[in-house]
């Protein structure tokens, strides 16, 4: 099953199991079913619970936030995550504050789905990874779709939080197959790191004997895997990949024994550098393990520039597996 099909099936199951859930967004009704077909079939199966909206991201999130605050549950689709900037006010100034600013805790089960990232030739304004702009907002959780994850469980976890959640869905994952049965490929296996709250670890042989740990969100997982393959087969360097389900709040404490044992950590993400999720992870690692690492945590980002539509130029800007390989080699030199 491909990731897009998995997300679509998960939404069907969520709506079937909970009549209080509503889905809102632009062009989400059948027969179109959303720009990436993640909402396909929902409006036909659940009439009146899937609402097509005008092109107004701030208005869509505002309505959904009010619906959630009034006792319902809302899942919003932002057609491209670049447009979530237009809903920044409703997310940061209304939804995230509403759970705690009325004198008592209130539930606001809201998920804002954000198809993100480049690699599909959509150009500068439809390819960005804007996660970093929502890291550190009290009352707001940030998640990212992973090809290792159970997406029905993912939606259930976010709705159960009772707080607004942003879910970033890297668009290049939509056509990729979901990993299953603990097998990533012919070299690597995966499982959930015990006690981590949803961090997948991908490894060859013993995860506790890796030379380096790579931490990456789900959208970068395939590039990290490609880098790990190159490092293992061509350099005999063994890496452990950690892929968290939730990016913020994020606690590195459960990861610390693995990070300390390796002594070398690379964080790879697709956003541009500066105030990023990766920088937050590096800060936590340094606070806990400074003096027990071979070198400071290495951060890998996309280049600081607009994302071109032309495939060869786009590839030059976005973070690639080769950049991760270089970062690991430099760290271990």
Biggest β-sheet: strands ordered side by side in the sheet: 2-1-3-4-6-5-11
Helical percentage: 25-40%
- Characterize the largest beta sheet: strand count, sense, and whether it forms a barrel: 7 strands, mixed
> Element order, helices and strands?
HEHEHEHEEHEEEEHEEHEHEHH
Q: What's the total count of β strands?
A: 13
Backbone structural class: alpha/beta
Q: Low-confidence stretches at least 5 residues in length (pLDDT < 50)? A: none
What is the approximate shape? globular
> Over the alpha carbons, how many angstroms does the gyration radius reach?
20 Å
Query: What is the beta-strand fraction?
Result: 15-25%
State the oligomer.
single chain
**How many helices does DSSP assign?**
10
| Overall residue-averaged pLDDT value | 97
Question: What is the rounded distance between the termini?
Answer: 40 Å
Plain-language structure description:
It is a single chain. The chain has 333 residues and is an alpha/beta fold. Helices cover 32% and strands 20% of the residues. The chain contains ten helices and 13 strands. Helix 6 links the parallel strand 9 and strand 10. The N and C termini lie far apart (40 Å).
Summarize the structure.
This protein is an alpha/beta fold and 333 residues long. Helix content is 32%, strand content 20%.
């Amino acid at each position: 099953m491909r990731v897009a099909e998995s997300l679509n099936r998960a939404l069907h199951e969520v709506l079937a199991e909970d009549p209080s859930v509503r889905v809102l967004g632009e062009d989400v009704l059948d027969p179109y079913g959303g720009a990436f077909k993640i909402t396909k079939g929902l409006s036909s199966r659940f009439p009146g619970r899937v609402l097509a909206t005008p092109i107004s991201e701030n208005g869509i999130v505002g309505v959904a936030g009010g619906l959630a605050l009034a006792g319902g549950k809302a899942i919003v689709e932002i057609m491209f995550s670049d447009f979530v900037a237009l809903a920044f006010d409703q997310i940061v100034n209304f939804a995230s504050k509403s759970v705690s600013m009325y004198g008592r805790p209130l539930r606001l089960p809201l998920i804002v789905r954000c198809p993100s990232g480049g690699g599909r030739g959509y150009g500068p304004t439809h390819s960005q990874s804007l996660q970093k702009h929502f890291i550190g907002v009290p009352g707001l959780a940030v998640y990212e779709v992973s090809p290792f994850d159970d997406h029905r469980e993912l939606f259930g976890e976010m709705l159960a939080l009772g707080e607004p959640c942003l879910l970033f869905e890297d668009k290049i994952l939509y056509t990729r197959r979901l990993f299953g049965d603990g097998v990533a490929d012919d070299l690597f296996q995966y499982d959930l790191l015990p006690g981590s709250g949803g961090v997948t670890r991908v490894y060859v042989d013993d995860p506790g004997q890796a030379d380096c740990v790579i931490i990456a969100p789900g959208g970068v997982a395939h590039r990290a895997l490609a880098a790990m393959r190159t490092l293992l087969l061509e350099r005999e360097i063994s890496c452990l990949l950690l892929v968290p389900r939730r990016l913020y709040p994020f606690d590195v404490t459960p990861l610390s024994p693995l990070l300390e044992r390796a002594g070398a950590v690379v964080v790879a993400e697709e956003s541009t550098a500066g105030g990023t999720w990766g920088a937050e992870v590096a800060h936590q690692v340094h606070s806990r393990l400074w003096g027990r690492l071979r070198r400071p945590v290495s951060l890998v980002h996309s280049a600081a520039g607009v994302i071109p539509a032309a495939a060869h130029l786009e590839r030059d800007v976005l973070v690639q597996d080769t950049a991760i390989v270089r970062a690991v080699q430099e760290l271990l030199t």
